[in-house]
Amino acid sequence: MRQRATRDQQRLDSGAVSSPKDLENLQREIASLAKRQGDLEDIVLEVMERRESAQERVAELTERVGAVQGKIDDATARRDAAFEELDGEAASVTKEREVIAASVPADLLKLYDKLREQQGGIGAAKLYQRTCQGCRQELAITELSEIRKAAPDTVVRCENCRRILVRTSESGL
Ligand SMILES: [Zn+2]
């Protein structure tokens, strides 16, 4: 288009076009070509601007993806470390339980395991201030007096949830 405009301009300058009508047509064509060129340049500019802002957005998003990935990596590492710690804790608690279980009479251990299975993992509970810490129920006066009279090695149980009650100095007896 620019070549055509140059050619038209050369023809106009050379004086080869002499008829006023042709001259007018040629001048009109040159003007229209100049306008179209201006329009096209505006479009090119706009496209370039849009491309630039798209590239900026891509860079920004890439950076954010990188930051999020960093957080994911960090959280994954912490989770793995926590798993490792918990595995170690579970192993040591299991070993501890084995040692304690070996010192408990077989029938009591059997009762405890049965209750534990029935009562959501807790087979024995502390009696604290006259309340069973397993079911959070305060024991009746008569039950408390029965427990008070029982020998220290007697297995006492909660009247409400049937868990084995562990007596301490804070039992409120
Ligand atoms: Zn209870």
Q: What Rg is obtained from the alpha carbons, in whole angstroms?
A: 46 Å
Which ranges are low-confidence, i.e. pLDDT below 50, for 5 or more consecutive residues?
none
Spatially, the strands of the biggest sheet line up as 2-1-4-3
What ligand species are in this complex? zinc ion
* Total tally of structural domains: 2
Tell me what portion of residues adopts beta-strand conformation. 5-15%
Question: Main β-sheet: number of strands, strand sense, barrel status?
Answer: 4 strands, mixed
Average pLDDT works out at 94
How would you spell out the order of helices and strands?
HHHEEHEE
* N/C terminus separation: 106 Å
Number of continuous helical runs: 4
Helix content: 55-70%
Report the count of strand segments.
4
Tertiary shape: rod-shaped
- Counting helices, strands and paired strands, the structural category is alpha+beta
Task: Describe the model.
The chain is of the alpha+beta class and 173 residues long. The chain has 2 domains: 2-74; 105-166, no CATH class. 69% of the residues lie in helices and 7% in strands. It contains 4 helices and 4 strands, in the order αααββαββ. It has helices spanning 2-14, 20-103, 106-118, 141-149, and strands spanning 124-128, 131-132, 156-157, 164-166. The chain has a 4-stranded mixed β-sheet. Helix 1 (2-14) runs antiparallel to helix 2 (20-103). The longest helix has 84 residues, at 20-103. The chain is rod-shaped and about 135 Å long. The chain starts with a helix and ends in a 7-residue tail after the last strand. The model has no long low-confidence stretch (mean pLDDT 94). The site of zinc ion has 8 residues, from loops. The site of zinc ion (ZN) has 8 residues, from loops.
